[in-house]
Specification:
Structural class: alpha+beta
Number of helices: 2
Radius of gyration: 14 Å
Order of helices and strands: HEHE
Number of strands: 2
Largest sheet: 2 strands, parallel
Number of domains: 1
Shape: elongated
Low-confidence stretches: none
Strand order of the largest sheet: 1-2
């Protein structure tokens, strides 16, 4: 919600704004039952960020760059 408010107050801002849902990651917070490891997820997130560089607007995406519903 914070990013949606930020973006709506700056409609002429040409920067890329992404809210990323990386998946359920095996971390201290995600726990051992999580589906993915950091090593599996971070390269996908990095590729997705690179692909969106210079693409203006706000989007909610997953690690595969699929747009997710708000």
């Amino acid at each position: 919600m914070l990013m949606k408010c930020f973006a709506s107050r700056r409609p002429d801002d040409g920067r890329t704004k992404l809210v990323v849902a990386p998946g359920w990651i095996k971390t201290e917070m995600g726990g051992d039952e999580a589906t993915y490891t950091i090593e599996e997820t971070i390269p996908l997130v990095a590729d997705m960020l690179e692909k969106n560089h210079g693409r203006p607007g706000l989007r909610y995406v997953d690690r595969f760059d699929a747009t997710l519903p708000w």
